[in-house]
Design brief:
The protein is of the alpha+beta class and about 625 residues long. A hairpin with a 5-residue loop joins strand 20 and strand 21. The protein is rod-shaped, with a radius of gyration of 55 Å. It is built from 15 helices and 22 strands. Among the domains are: about 170 residues, Galactose-binding domain-like (Jelly Rolls, Sandwich), CATH 2.60.120; about 140 residues, Heat Shock Protein 90 (2-Layer Sandwich).
């Protein structure tokens, strides 16, 4: 068992801001993750007061007038402006009859800044850090020092601690000011569990978060730098890197530079981090202002100049003032960002609002720790919130960027599809325009040829008809004139109403048959509303003329019936005579010439057919069938 020395009365300890309930909840959550918090046992002795002497030397100056101070001892309160070294003496009593085979005892120091020496009963058992300037920056690492059993006495034991550090006025943060926390003496195995927990909370977790911020910040800075439209990513990357560099004290315990130079370097990071935070919030809100873009870099130059011009004992006050000013700037930017998000994107407002609120609370805790001297562990728990929130915001930004990339890829694919469709449509239109241009040129050429035939050849044929003394020549000229007029009509391309076409055909066929002494019987419906294309009209007229000529010249018929009808989607024309019919030899001869074969070929060109049914002594039947969708157009 351990017993406090009878000469060590207890002094009440003060409770700072670190006792806030939410910090206790955070500590409990961390404890649940890292393992159960080791409970205080009867073997552990908490020492919260000590004798203190400000002196330099190899031993505690027993002859000097010692002051009794409470632990933790903040030099800025107990000895303002002091640079040390300071000796502390505490005593405890080991259990009577303690043997060498009993468990080792250890001394646990949760916070000491910066160089530490420990003596047990006048014998050196630990020394860490430099003896002179610049002192080691070992303020965040808890210390666990084994107390050798051979040096312990059955009665009272004395532990002397020599601390060398920097006065609060000469550093930029209270975390780097000299001081000593309360001491814990107990069995080594019990204190090791507590040591691991404290090291995890104060060192391992911050280092892991800082490493994450460095990697994530570097990636996002490059991403935002390459894509200028997403400049807020570059500023967030700079913010993450800057915040990680502010915690460089966790990685470098001994700086190769003078203490004031180190403080100036760390101070230079403050306006850079603030500038990155303000610009990130403004750019993330899709807003920028030229005055702010000029003022923030000017502030980055002004702050280090003011620190260099300040007196050494004014560094802390000046840094604290600058920190408050920079915090107000970041707070104003955050409020402006939330205002914009409330107007534009409510869902984003609540998420970012919650994260910024947590950051604001942790910032207040940090300021309170700087101003009021919050216990180191509680302040460190608050200090974990900011990098953790930065990691969460970074993950959110990466998620949004990935979603935007997916949308951009989908939009790109859709745009490419539309471009392909537009290109195909343009090609189709171009081909249609080309075809239309060819058709227009062809139509103009046809009209020109038709005009030439009508005006030149037609006039000459008409002159022959009226001036020739030979009936045969006049007849041939008249037939040529009719054929020319039919060709001209085909060349002009003007459509003909089917009813008008039937009238023309009836007048011509009946007249020709009557001149040959053949009785004609014409039958056709009166309610036909279709329109016949010029090509179909010309080809059908020629087929009908050829059929009429064959009847007049070869059939020997006295009667001819002509029937026109529309049935089953086809236009049908039937020509039937009562002549002698076509013999086998004549049929072969006609197919080889330009008669029946020409009629069938003309019908085939119109996607139709021309059938001839005949036999000797039974007359001849010609059936012409034309599909309406090829030969006729809707009226």
């Amino acid at each position: 068992m351990l017993y406090p020395a009878p000469t060590q009365p207890r002094v009440p300890r003060t409770v700072g801001v670190g006792g806030l309930p939410w910090l206790l909840l955070l500590a409990l959550a961390l404890a649940l993750v890292l393992g159960p918090m080791p409970a205080a046992r009867a073997q552990q002795l908490l020492i919260d007061q000590a004798l203190s002497v400000e002196a330099d030397g190899a031993r505690f100056p027993a002859a000097a007038a010692a002051l009794r101070v409470a632990l933790p001892d903040d030099w800025s309160r107990s000895r303002p402006g002091s640079q040390g070294p300071v000796w502390y003496r505490v005593s405890f009593s080991a259990a009577p009859g303690r043997g060498a085979d009993e468990e080792l005892l250890a001394l646990q120091i949760t916070h000491v800044c910066a160089t530490l020496s420990v003596q047990l009963n006048g014998q050196l058992v630990h020394h860490g850090g430099r003896l002179g300037e610049p002192y080691s920056q070992d303020c965040s690492h808890p210390q666990l020092i084994v107390l050798p059993t051979a040096l312990l006495r059955p009665g009272p034991n004395v532990v002397d601690l020599k601390v060398m550090g920097h006065a609060l006025e000469t550093v930029g943060s209270r975390h780097r000011a000299a001081g000593l926390s309360a001491l814990m003496i107990g069995p080594l195995h019990e204190l090791q569990a507590s040591q691991r927990l404290q090291t995890t909370i104060k060192v391992t977790l911050p280092q892991a978060l800082d490493a994450t911020l460095l990697l994530m910040g570097g990636f996002m800075f490059v991403l935002g730098f390459v894509n200028r439209r997403e400049s807020h990513l570059a500023y967030f990357g700079a913010l993450s890197i800057g915040w990680a560099l502010l915690d460089a004290r966790l990685w470098l315990r001994e700086w190769p530079l003078p203490q004031r130079t180190v403080e100036l370097l760390l101070g230079v990071l403050l306006p850079l981090v603030a500038q990155a935070a303000v610009q990130f919030l403004l750019r993330y809100a899709r807003w920028r202002h030229r005055a702010i873009d000029l003022a923030l870099p000017l502030q980055v130059l002004l702050l280090p100049l003011s620190l260099m011009a300040a007196a050494p004992d004014q560094l802390y006050r000046l840094t604290l003032a600058w920190t408050a000013l920079l915090s107000l700037q970041v707070l104003a930017a955050a409020l402006f960002y939330l205002h914009r998000q409330w107007r534009e994107r409510r869902d984003e407002f609540w998420l970012m609002g919650a994260l910024l609120a947590v950051v604001a609370v942790s910032g207040l805790i940090e300021i309170a720790a700087q101003r009021l001297g919050t216990p180191p562990l509680s302040a460190q728990l608050a200090h974990l919130v900011m990098p953790l929130m930065l990691v969460l915001v970074g993950l959110r930004l990466v998620q949004q960027h990935g979603h935007a990339l997916r949308q951009a890829e989908a939009g790109k694919a859709q745009l490419e599809q539309r471009v392909r469709e537009a290109t195909a449509e343009i090609e189709r239109n171009f081909r249609a325009l080309s075809d239309l241009k060819v058709e227009q040129v062809t139509a103009r050429e046809r009209k020109r040829i038709a005009a030439d035939l009508h005006d030149d050849l037609g006039a000459k044929l008409l002159t022959i008809v009226h001036t020739s003394d030979s009936d045969r020549i006049s007849t041939l000229a008249r037939e040529a004139l009719e054929e020319m007029r039919l060709s001209v009509r085909g060349l002009t391309g003007r459509a003909v109403r089917l009813a008008d076409a039937l009238g023309d055909w009836r007048a011509e066929v009946v007249s020709r048959l009557a001149q040959a002494g053949i009785e004609a019987d014409w039958s056709a419906p009166d309610d036909l509303t279709q329109t016949l294309s010029a090509r179909a009209y010309v080809q059908t007229t020629r087929i009908l003329r050829e059929a009429t000529s064959n009847i007049i010249k070869h059939s020997g018929a006295s009667y001819c019936a002509l029937r026109c009808q529309v049935a089953d989607g086809d236009f049908q024309l039937i020509v039937q005579d009562n002549g002698e019919g076509i013999s086998t030899e004549a049929d072969a001869r006609l197919d080889r010439g330009h008669g029946m074969a020409t009629m069938k070929q003309r019908a085939k060109q119109m996607q139709g057919q021309c059938l001839v049914e005949s036999g000797p002594g039974f007359g001849t039947v010609i059936r012409l069938t034309l599909p309406l969708d090829h030969a006729l157009e809707g009226a």
